[in-house]
Design brief:
Length: 595
């Protein structure tokens, strides 16, 4: 490196560009090929070069005959990269020190709005946000990211154009556009990081809005990768749907499908069959299936929310709306000016997909049937990629979603026979699925299937019992009731056996996520055992005893596990009552048999 006392401004800039080019090659290219035993080799080499540049620029910036702000901007870039390397090599204390040094340098003399410095300073604030997120201090991370946001907004009000050292005072239009895009990209990252931070702070709605704004800006500046953008938009749709924002959810799914559609046209226009083209096609097929799954989830969530709304006595739920446009947001950070109507993508026409399915809550069977058919269509599309012989886990989840869609449709069906047939269709789906998957490798899924089959057989059983109560039962109908009871109990028993240890005993303390299904399974077995119809007293006694044993199991679990007793309080009280009552019935039957 040339002695700084001899260097002219042009020479310093030339020297900076040459060395910075070496730094970027080490970080962007060479670091990807570092050996496993020295994973940071290239980063440390880059840091050594940056430290030399830091010393040189520190001396140059002190000279009165040069443009100090330009060289302070260059020095700020060097400090930022050193801080990033320290962060990536997990030297967080050093990273914080160097990044704060960059902040002090770039903000002195109100320099934070100078065109040469603004983009670098925004990036420094962004990296301080990342640093404090890595330290699991989201509030501190948010404070730096909001400084970045405020800086960008303040600079935009000055109507100046940002500059980078590569372009200096060049009048090239392309250079100015490049500098402008670097600033806009840096600010887009600010919004993206704020989305993550608000997610960490459990402010899910604000997180979703920042995600939306990030995606909208990427579209606005044509700065996105189609597959990633579509997947992000489809994933974000789930967040809105879970908060009953079905209008916004549908819009984001439609946008994802439109972008994928345009990308597919590009792929078809490429006649090449080389490895790169085939890899792109494989990725497209994979992610298209994922977006199809998100559409199916949208349908399921709309049906779920509609069912909950119709069953609820809660006025706030029954009066809920499925469009968040008029929702009032406490927008202290001025994300969208408090106006939720802006959560759309004005640059693309999504009516093609939005017109295929509604967003309002369902109230009739016909409403539900349209959503059900849409759900089945998207599930079938997803199954073209997620096949049972290749991706068993994903295929299983798709079939479970298919079963659930029949369950929700059955809720809206008023005719008992048709409703029973829908549940029978669920049984066919789930039992066929059980034949295809191996419990050794997919026990978690087998458990879910056994439990759900227990529920479905119980649902059909209740339909048949209602019919028997309304009219004189036939021998066939009574036999059917017993068969449904046995099949329900059999599947619940299979589920419970999968939870027991090798000695056939329940764990002394259940895993938290198993408490509800295990206790519910025992309670269902208890009820369904009593619903079985038996003409002889020996059979009746076995049924009552089975019921008593199941209710007793719930009492034992809750007595030994406070979490279970609290979570399943109503079932616990009911089972305690049944444990007191059933011995009387058992004793009576035993006395009658003895007599």
């Amino acid at each position: 490196m040339i002695e700084t006392t001899e260097m002219t401004e042009v020479e310093v800039i030339k020297d900076f560009k040459e060395n910075y080019g070496k730094v970027r090659k080490l970080l962007d290219v060479d670091s990807n090929h570092d050996p496993e035993n020295e994973p940071y080799l290239s980063k440390y080499k880059a840091k050594e070069l940056l430290n030399n540049m830091r010393d040189c620029l520190t001396n140059v910036a002190k000279r009165d005959n040069l443009d100090r702000s330009k060289f302070e901007a260059m020095l700020g870039t060097v400090l930022m990269d050193i801080g990033i390397i320290d962060m990536e090599t997990e030297d967080f204390s050093s990273s914080e020190k160097v990044l704060m040094e960059a902040v002090d340098l770039l903000t002195q003399d109100s320099g934070n709005c100078k065109p040469e410095m603004v983009t670098t300073l925004i990036n420094v604030y962004n990296n301080l946000g990342i640093l404090w997120s890595n330290r699991e201090e989201p509030e501190k991370a948010k404070s730096f990211l909001l400084k970045s946001k405020e800086l960008y907004e303040t600079f935009k009000c000055t109507l100046q154009m940002p500059l980078t050292i590569d372009h200096g005072n060049s009048n090239s239009g392309e250079a100015f556009i490049g500098d402008f895009m670097l600033l806009e990209k840096a600010y887009t990252l600010t919004l993206y990081y704020l989305a993550q931070v608000f997610g960490s702070l459990k402010e899910n709605l604000k997180s979703a809005i920042y995600c939306h704004v990030t995606l909208r800006r990427q579209l606005q500046y044509s700065d996105y990768e189609p597959i990633d953008w579509s997947l992000s938009s489809a994933t974000l749709s789930q967040v809105f749907a879970e908060q009953n924002g079905f209008f916004q959810s549908r819009h984001h799914l439609a946008a994802a499908s439109i972008i994928l559609e345009k990308y597919e046209e590009e792929l078809k226009g490429n006649d090449s069959n080389d490895e790169v083209a085939l890899a792109k096609l494989e990725t497209f097929n994979h992610r298209s299936a994922d977006v199809a799954r998100c559409w199916a989830k949208y349908c399921l969530l709309l049906m779920t929310a509609s069912k909950a709304r119709l069953m609820s006595d809660d006025e706030t739920l029954t009066e809920a709306i499925s469009d968040m446009s008029d929702l009032k947001l406490d927008d202290t950070e001025n994300i969208c000016g408090g106006d939720m109507k802006t959560l759309i993508f004005p640059d693309i026409d999504v009516t093609k997909y939005e017109s295929k399915i509604g967003y309002k809550f369902l109230s009739t069977y016909q409403d539900a049937r349209e959503v059900f058919l849409s759900c089945q269509s998207w599930l079938n599309k997803a199954k073209e990629y997620y096949r049972a012989d290749v991706l068993a886990s994903d295929y299983t989840e798709l079939m479970q979603d298919s079963s659930q869609s029949y369950s929700y449709l059955a809720f809206f069906e008023e005719d008992d026979e048709r409703r029973a047939k829908m549940h029978k269709r669920r049984i066919d789906i789930l039992e066929d699925l059980l034949k295809e998957i191996n419990p050794t490798y997919y026990m978690q899924y087998c458990r879910q299937l056994w439990y759900e089959l227990g529920e479905v057989y119980s649902d059909i059983l209740n339909i048949k019992l209602d019919k028997i109560n309304k009219e004189k039962p036939t021998p066939h109908a009574l036999k059917k009731v017993n068969l449904l009871c046995e099949k329900s109990i059999e599947n619940y028993d299979n589920f419970l056996n999968s939870v027991r240890n090798k000695n056939g005993q329940m764990p002394k303390k259940l895993e938290f996520e198993l408490i509800r299904p295990v206790i519910s399974a025992y309670a269902f077995i208890g009820r369904n055992s009593m619903k079985r119809i038996a003409l002889d007293k020996n059979t009746q006694l076995r049924h009552v005893q089975k019921s008593y044993d199941s209710y007793s199991a719930v009492v034992d679990i809750c007595m030994n596990d406070k979490d279970a007793a609290v979570m399943m309080h109503e079932e616990y009280i009911l089972c305690q009552e049944m444990v007191k009552i059933l011995p009387i019935k058992i004793n009576k039957l035993q006395a009658e048999l003895a007599a």
